[in-house]
Amino acid sequence: MPGHRIYLDHNATAPLAPGVREVVCAALDMQGNPSSVHREGRNARAMVEAARQQVAALAGVPASRIVFTSGATEAAALALTPQISLKGAKGFDILIVAGGEHPCVREGHRFAAENVVTVPLTAGGIVDLAALEKALDGLDGRRAVLALQAANNETGVIQPVRTAAEMVRAHGGIVVCDAVQAAHRIDENAVTLGADILFLSAHKMGGAKGVGAVALGNPALEIDSPLLRGGGQERSLRAGTENVAGIAGFGAAAVHALQVRASEATRQGALRDTFEAGLRELDPEITIFGKATPRLPNTTAFALPGMAAETLLIALDLEGIALSSGSACSSGKVRPSQVLESMGVPPELSRCALRASLGLDTTAHDIEQALETIGRVARRITDRRMKPAA
Ligand code: PLP
Fold first, then answer.
1. Which option is the CATH number for 6-15+261-386: 3.90.1150.10, 2.40.150.20, 1.10.760.10, 3.30.200.20?
2. How far apart, in whole angstroms, are the C-alpha atoms of residue 374 and residue 97?
3. Which of 47, 87, 142, 215 could cysteine-pair with 61, CB 3.0–4.6 Å?
4. Is the pLDDT of residue 218 over 60?
């Protein structure tokens, strides 16, 4: 199919899920401000509240405990503050961050730098639980917040959130879980993960870009320090007229995710396995990061040794295949992935790391084509390298 592009970068952002466009457009056509008392306002409010129910069902919290934000980055900044009350006791002292966290967690939190402890990942890509226990033992009576994602955006590795949460809670701490890549792909939510706070992003699950949510899982917990103050929207935790269209679309995407999550996990998992088997046929020396660890069904992070990721990425883009090197947020910067670094991957291998992330629109034909093109492009790059200079 001339001009047909194969998009394998769903962890960066996903196309709109079925039904979302219609809901977003209908909301854009609504006049009212959700805070107004007249009918137009009430209609807009109803749309926001319906979406709140829908997102809450995915997050596993009551609707009254959802706070809409401009995305996961803002959600992380809102949730990761020392100013949290738990059962009336105010304030947390230390932030423990797992080595694989997204930059919005690593850099976007509101703790003083001297109060942040980083815990590395194991070679398999999960948080090192022995190192976590050591960090908890060193707290010396101080109260800790653990930031641990449900699944990693680069490798797809699923984190042992429940186990880590039990460890942290035994030391009087709480867990804030970035469920951005996981919520729509695996059967987990705030309850099953045992997370006190969860956060989500709409555009990773087929909603519009620029909307996300904090889900307060623990009923005894309150965030005391909003980022935006003003009109009192979102229980005074996030002032500003709501992004009604974005929120409504987020609700529709959450409903769709719950409907297809199990079947898509099976379908995409099979495609991902075919992709990985094909890559290994192309080059038996290939490294697939986190291969031996439970991973999201849609993600493959791999390195063809000696094949610089940026070179392959650009060549594949010209051939109609969209992959990514590391996370989208850090592409453009030629810096080895911090996630792989935390897993102990040497920089020379990390520089070869590419990510393919599948989604609702990925077909078996796409995978076949992608493998054929990767093989052809990799051979071309190798041949060019072998050719003596004229
Ligand atoms: N957390 C993870 C795991 C992500 O993959 C991303 C997006 O790249 C984010 C957070 C940030 O999400 P948003 O684009 O909504 O700010």
1. 3.90.1150.10
2. 35
3. 215
4. yes
Active site residue 25: no
98 Cβ below 6 A of ligand 1? no
Ligand 1 in reach of 223 Cβ (< 6 A): no
Distance 49 CA to ligand 1 centre (A): 24
- Which tens digits make up the pLDDT trace of 365-386? 999 999 999 999 999 988 887 7
Which listed residue (25, 104, 177, 329) is catalytic? 329
Q: Which amino acid is at 281?
A: E
Q: Does the fold of domain 20-255 match that of domain 6-15+261-386?
A: no
Nearest to 178 by CA among 163, 190, 191: 190
Nearest CA to ligand 1 atom 7: 12
**C-beta 181 within 6 A of ligand 1:** yes
Q: What six digits make up the tokens of 63?
A: 């609707």
Give the bridge partners for 223, in sequence order. 84
**72 CB within 6 A, ligand 1:** yes
What's the gap between Cα 129 and its chain centre?
Answer: 21
Q: What backbone phi and psi angles, to 5 degrees, belong to 277? A: -65, -40
Q: Give residues with Cβ within 8 angstroms of 284, minimum separation 6.
A: none
Highest mean pLDDT among 2-11, 104-113, 331-340: 104-113
- pLDDT averaged over every residue in the chain: 95
The residue ranking higher by pLDDT, 135 or 331, is 135
The pTM score is 0.96
Q: Is the CB of 73 under 6 A from ligand 1?
A: yes
Domain positions in the chain are 6-15+261-386, 20-255
Distance CA 100, CA 108 (A): 14
pLDDT of 329 > 70? The answer is no
CATH architecture assigned to 20-255: 3-Layer(aba) Sandwich (3.40)
Instruction: Indicate whether 333 pLDDT > 80.
Output: no
CA 332 and chain centroid, separation? 19
Find the farthest-apart pair of alpha carbons in the chain and give their distance in angstroms, rounded: 77
Distance from Cα 209 to the centre of ligand 1, integer Å: 10
**In this structure, are strands 353-357 and 299-303 parallel, antiparallel, or unpaired?**
antiparallel
Question: Which amino acid type is present at position 70?
Answer: S
Is residue 52 within 8 Å of 46, Cβ to Cβ? Answer: no
Residue 330: pLDDT over 80: no
